Amino acid sequence: MTEFFQSLGLTYEAAWAFATLSGILLIALPLMLAVAMIIYVDRKVWAAINLRRGPNVVGPFGLLQSFADGLKVFLQETIIPSAANKGIFILAPIVTFTVALAAWAVIPFDAGVVLADINVGLLYILAISSLSVYGVVMSGWASNSKYPFFSAMRAAAQMISYEVSIGFILICVVLWAGSFNLTEIVNAQRGHGFGLVNGYVFNLLLFPMWVVFFISSLAETQRVPFDLTEAESELVAGYQTEYSSMSFALFWLGEYANILLMCSLNTLLFFGGWLPPLDVDLIPWFDIPGIVWFLLKTFFFFFMFSWVMATVPRYRYDQLMRLGWKVFLPLSLLFVVVISGWLMVTRYGA
Amino acid sequence: MIQTIAFYLFAVLVIASAVMVIMARNPVHSVLWLILAFFNAAGLMVLVGAEFIAMLLVVVYVGAVAVLFLFVVMMLDIDFAELRAGFVRNFPLGIAIALVLLAELVLGIGAYQAGNLDLGTPAGDAAPMLGESNIENLGALLYGKYLFLFETAGIILLVAMVGAIVLTHRPPKTQRGHQHIGKQNARRPEDATVMKQPEVGKGVEL
Amino acid sequence: MDYSISLRLIAPEILLSVSGLVLLLVAAWGGQKTGRLVSILSAAALFGAGLMLFPTLHLGVVGPDTFAFGDQFRADAFAAFAKALIYLAGIGCLMVAPTYFDRLKAMKPEYPVLLLFAVLGMSIMVSASDFLTLYIGLELNSLAAYVLAAFLRNDTRSAESGLKYFVLGALASGILLYGMSLLYGFTGTTSFEGVRVALSGEMSTGMLFGLIFVLAGLAFKISAVPFHMWTPDVYEGAPTPVTTFFATAPKVAAIALTARVALDAFGTQVDAWRQVVIFAALASILVGALGAIGQQNLKRLLAYSSINNVGFILIGLAAGTVGGVGAMLVYLAIYVAMSLGSFVALLMLRDENGDALATFADISGLSAKRPALAWCLLALMFSLAGIPPLLGFFGKFVVFQAGVEADMVALAAFGIAASVIGAFYYIKFVKVMFFDDASERSVADSTTAHWVLLVVTTAIVSPLGYLVTPSLGDLTDKAASALFLLP
Question: Is B161 on the interface with C (CB under 8 A)?
Fold first, then answer.
């Protein structure tokens, strides 16, 4: 895109700045739109599984429900509790929201369609997702109220716990792909299963890791059944209790952007990203743009997230910790050893 | 030009936030400034082309270490009045230390200008670049030249872990609160519930 | 890089780490009751690793054949001598521990495992020929030592000593690392060889700073004055078997390491560090002697005694000659026997309830109650004081001789004068045991393991020890020559 701006007669620096800015806008604005729609989808799926109707009043089939909600919170008054630590209280939702957007910089939507095609893309995502805990912790502390504080403590422990096993799972994928670059990871998945199907999920050694990754991504985004940070029966609304108006909305936007990010990571790391499911040109798979496949797969994972949310009861906190430290961590460590051993024998000739 | 701007931005922010770490009254604010300092240090790493180190800095220090700091510091109950009283009491000592540091600084700069300190004389015999990315380079060094040290560092971590467990782990004294996970998982709905279709106006026999 | 040669050179370390890992698994699955078994197996592992050193030590192998992993690690005769001492001290500390901890119902199999890893760290330290190896070995040793100091976690004194040791040790590691990074910045390398080459010729201020910081960090580890403050507190608070360990093996490792750094990495700048070492030696001798005088607690007294002894050892290093290093190694060997013996004797001083007799008041008139123990202590104390014909005298003698040969007559004379001050409190020890009225505390009988160790160490420091000094001198000369390969 830099070349395009240069052809308009700008210097390289200015063109680069414009290109990056427009790239950011091209990702962030549709993402916000997607978040609005995906909240609607979430509620619809949830309602359907509960044999309810869900939002159906605002707009056709209730499609505009999220926008109505957004307008409502926008017009509300921002209330800052008098005992709150004002600066951090305001900063917390901003951090959550910013961090949720920043991770999207390295996500490739199609071959070459990525804002920053960096070498260490996956590490970048790991780094950024490890930051998302700060929004929660800061808001919990700054609210100066006991339920948000409990929620912040839970969040800190929970996210650190699951990040460890997520890190090991990512290492398994990186070992197999031989790169930290997300584009190369997707390209390495072409024809992975018998030269027919695209995606690491069709690999006997990586399939269990995908299962662990999917569950860990639920825990990392604090979705049901791991939503102990906002368990409404225990903690009112967790760290969001004292928030209102736009700051509350920013939390919601950030949360759903994170969920979408995790869905797209499932797609990119295990399901072949923008590649069609089969590597065979029986029907014109490859004529469909890659971005469509990518969005379809991501949407499928979001459906699974909603499905889980509607059907699974919440974990107890000790069960959550046990699952993270005593089951997932040893399992993923074991698979790092097995996979690197297998690759060493088969690929690098011992 | 972009690099220059970025460098000065990151460098100024590192120093400013490092100053704020020690100036902030509230320890939570200190930790948050520290996180900002880590962040900008990572930015500087990216500028010199060490993107792997930069990411590790964020993942390890910001993502794990600082969260634990914050976790502990958040639970502190700080009495700000007493803090201020301590400040007044220790003020002369603080001034004395500041003067000593200032004198050292002046001496150091003097020595530097006298030409006695020649900063940075790399011999230029570092290991040659083995691959394209610095992950590959680091990997080749860690698992090649420094294999012995790498493995020994693993033993250090093991010792640290064993030590932490030895010093803190207490065997459960009572069985109260002890969970039998296997038993919980083996329990099925049939064992715990019964389906009944009670007629209206009649109770249920249990 | 060909690893097979390197791996053969680090065989003792491999044996130690593998047995440490296996024993950790035994401890994890076997539970608390395996404490004694794991102790015995750890001692066996140390013994096995010691046997592997024999050829190197006997033949006095030095030179490039001993370089492993591209000269990050040297398995030469110097390292082998230090390792042999460390392993022997380690075995001794393993022998005395189970009885002590069993009495407190605190014996855990992790104790011998941690000790094994600490010994592994020291083993790496004495072989280090790269600052990275040095640091890794030092940290491995230190981390295990911090935990060992706090091993009786329900005892506040033990916890306090562990914490103190940890905080000050971390500070010292920081100083050391800072010095190492300065040296790396100014020389562009971390290997001793490279630093040696880069330091030859004019030395810049930055290099001097790096050198001083590295030596300061190491001085903490050998508890030389002015970095000795932690020693009495840690020695007093830590469980006595752990104190026994601290007073023997880590001292050997840190001093051997300091010698290698000083003579190998800084070998071309002897004048730059000699004054530092001389100051540390004199100050240690003086502070050790004067500080001990007022002490009532026996463990604190022995802590000051060890500071005092480190001063004498450093005189050998300050000489900076083959003879000086040889004398230093001889003194180290004798020092290990002496302090092992005296701490074992302290361990044996308990009443019927198992409470330690910790002060002078408790042990007064010991000779009437347990003459054998009192006589052994007498021999050990006189040896520490350097009174002929005990072996401690020989140690001091060779060190002073080396000092005089290196034209440091004043230093040697000062050392001799200070050792007379030091003799005061050793003799006070003996006086209290033999000539004071008996205290009311009874003294319980001890186990065979304690007696064996005490008798063996007493025999070594007795005039019988002179039978082995010729062969000991032979070994130390070969070992010391390893540090003087280059001009």
Answer: no
Query: What contacts C418, CB < 8 A, 6 or more positions away?
Result: C282, C285, C286, C289, C308, C311
Q: Do A119 and B63 touch (CB under 8 A)?
A: no
pLDDT digits (tens, 9 = 90+) for C55-90: 888 887 777 788 888 888 888 888 899 999 999 999
Q: Which residues contact C245 (CB under 8 A, 6 or more apart)?
A: C89, C90, C93, C115, C118, C148
Q: Count the helix, strand and coil residues of chain A and give each as a percent rounded to the nearest 5.
A: 70, 0, 30
Tell me which DSSP letter residue A78 carries.
P
Enumerate the domain spans of chain B: 1-78, 79-112, 134-166
Query: CA nearest C395: which of C306, C298, C312?
Result: C312
Highest-pLDDT range among B191-200, C307-316, C469-478: C307-316
Question: What is the C-alpha to C-alpha distance for residues C42 and C29, in angstroms, rounded to an integer?
Answer: 17
For residues A340 and B143, give the distance between their C-alpha atoms in angstroms, rounded to a whole number: 14
Q: Do B59 and A127 touch (CB under 8 A)?
A: yes
Q: Is B181 on the interface with A (CB under 8 A)?
A: yes
Nearest by Cα to B53 from B38, B68, B35: B38
The three state secondary structure string of A11-69 is CHHHHHHHHHHHHHHHHHHHHHHHHHHHHHHHHHHHHHHCCCCCCCCCCHHHCCHHHHH
Axis-axis angle for helices C448-461, C391-405 (nearest 10):
40
**Cβ-proximal residues to A207 (8 Å cutoff; 6+ apart), any chain:** A201
| Beta strand spans in chain A (E) | none
Q: How far is CA C86 from CA B143, C119, C253, in A?
A: 30, 7, 7
Amino acid at A303: F
**Nearest 5°: CA angle at C261, between C302 and C238?**
25
Percent of chain C with pLDDT over 90: 27
pLDDT digits (tens, 9 = 90+) for A320-346: 888 888 899 999 999 999 999 998 888
Distances (CA, A) of C255 to A94, A162, C223, C477: 55, 45, 10, 17
- Report CB contact under 8 Å: B155, C17: yes
Give B168-180 pLDDT, tens digit per residue: 887 766 666 667 7
Question: Are B152 and C140 within 8 A, CB to CB?
Answer: yes
Contact A48, A105 (CB under 8 A): no
Chains C and B touch (3+ CB pairs under 8 A): yes
B interface test, pick of A90, A120, A137 with most B CB neighbours within 10 Å: A120
The verdict on whether omega for the bond into residue C226 sits within 30 degrees of 0, i.e. cis, is: yes
B31 touches chain A (CB under 8 A): no
pLDDT tens digit sequence for B143-196: 888 888 999 999 999 999 999 988 888 776 666 666 777 888 888 888 888 888
How far apart, in whole angstroms, are the C-alpha atoms of residue C130 and residue C193?
8
State the average pLDDT for chain B.
76
Chain C nearest CA to B141, separation (Å): 12
Q: Give the list of residues 6+ apart from residue A206 with CB closer than 8 angstroms, or none.
A: A172, A173, A176, A200, A270, A339
CA distance A71 to A11: 41
Q: How many CB atoms lie within 10 A of CB B198?
A: 9
Task: Give yes or no for residue C312 having a pLDDT over 70.
Answer: yes
The arithmetic mean of pLDDT across residues C401-421, rounded, is 85
Fold (CATH) for B1-78: Four Helix Bundle (Hemerythrin (Met), subunit A) (1.20.120)
Partner residue opposite A120 with nearest CB, options B2, B29, B51: B51
User: Does B64 sit within 8 Å of A123, measured CB to CB?
Assistant: no
Nearest to B149 among C133, C186, C204 (CB): C133
pTM assigned to the model: 0.84
Under an 8 A CB cutoff, do C136 and B156 touch? yes
The structure tokens 């990871």 sit at A185
